Each structure stands twice: as C-alpha cells, then as structure tokens.
Amino acid sequence: MTILAIIGGTGLSQLAALNTTRTESIETPYGKPSADFVIGEIANKEVIFLARHGNLHAILPHKINYRANIWALKKLGVENIIAVAAVGGITAQMTPASLAIPDQIIDYTYSREHTFFDGEDGNVTHIDFTYPYSQKLRAALITAATTANLQISPIGTYGCTQGPRLESAAEITRMERDGCDLVGMTGMPEASLAKEIGLNYAALAVMANWGAGKTAGEITMAEIEENLHHGMANAGKLLQAFIAAY
Ligand code: HPA
User: Is residue 124 part of a domain?
Assistant: First the structure.
C-alpha cells in the first residue's frame, strides 16, 4: 500500500487519532525539515505526520524549509500528501470555519526557495503545473466529505501570499478579480515541489476568517482561533473518513 503523509498547518500541529509508533529525524541536502516526522497508524493504515510550522508553531510561512520537508517525505517512501492549511475566505461560499478542496493555485509569493530544479546539474527542467493538485486525491477527499456528512467547497482557487502579514483590503479585492477564492501563505511552493519530485498532493483548506475588507473592521486573532477550532474538528472528521477508505 502507498504511504500517506499529512502535513498539518496552523490549528493542526498534531494528529490526535494517530497511534504513534516512532518518530524520524531526517537530514536533507536542503537542511532540516520543520520537525521530526511522526509515524504511526490510523485505522490500520500507515500515516506520517509533519507539523509544517514546527512542533512549537514557531516557523513563519516564508521561513518554512519547504524543500527539506518535501524531499524528506519522498525519502520516507511517501506517495500521497494531504496538506491541511488554514486560509482566509474570499468568495461567498468560503464562509468562516468551512472546508474547501482547492483545484487551482495562483502564486503571489517571492524570495522563497521554491524548486529542486536549480539547473546546477546542467539540466533545464520545466514541470507541467496545469493541474497543481492530484485529481485522484481531491476526488477521494470529496468522497470522504460526503461519507463524513460534511458540506464542503469541492473546488476553489488558492491564492498564496508571502505573509507573514495578512493582506490589505485592496490586495484581497485584486485577488478576487484575479479569480482567487481563498488565500493562504503556505500552499506554495509546497504544491509545486511535491509535483517536481513526483508526489501526489492535495490540500484541505480550513477557513479561519474572511479575507481583509470582506467584513467591517480588522481581522482578529480571536476570530481566527474560534473558526479554526470548529473547522479543524471537521477537517479531522474528513481525514478520518479519507484514511478509513484509503
Ligand atoms: N490571509 C492569508 N493567510 C491566511 C489568512 C488570510 O486571511 N487566514 C489564515 N491564513
């Protein structure tokens, strides 16, 4: 059976359902991953968990060593990655605490180490990125949502911003014009690195807040925490159904 990895983001720094059997610390040519890999089983399926922001949630989105994280997962024999991510909602259906399985990406990040193909080996490699996410994994996540009786958004364009600040209202307006449905800070280059190295990758996005300017006033940490609390509980149920059927 193919090995599954779950990368947890803000609001999901450990997997409660995981019966841990061991942890692995991996060195990579790109340096250290965000944390040790926690390996165990859920519903008799082997699952590897990585806390994207580190165990103490101290690594900022632009400082995450995405290359080390993805390279190490490949080394561990992983084939499929589900990336859980807290995001802001932009379009109407992306209500706080709801879940989405995005199908497209627009990348607004800069200055991140974003590729395994730096050309240092003399090769010029361009990967296809027409469909940034694995359609097979997305379909399985959507089915799991139905099994778990959860209403989710089955598509959406994820706009990835540099952070760590949230966006201005005008930036969110521009992103909406661009076609973004949700906004996060960690989806890239995670998705493209996975694709470069031949791993199947899909994202499960949890709405933490409305994007800037979508409501009156400013975005507060209190509302983010409250929405993530509810949203991550549902994300856990969806993952449970996904893994049971894996
Ligand atoms: N913008 C970017 N990233 C986020 C947001 C947001 O509004 N909420 C949670 N992650």
Answer: no
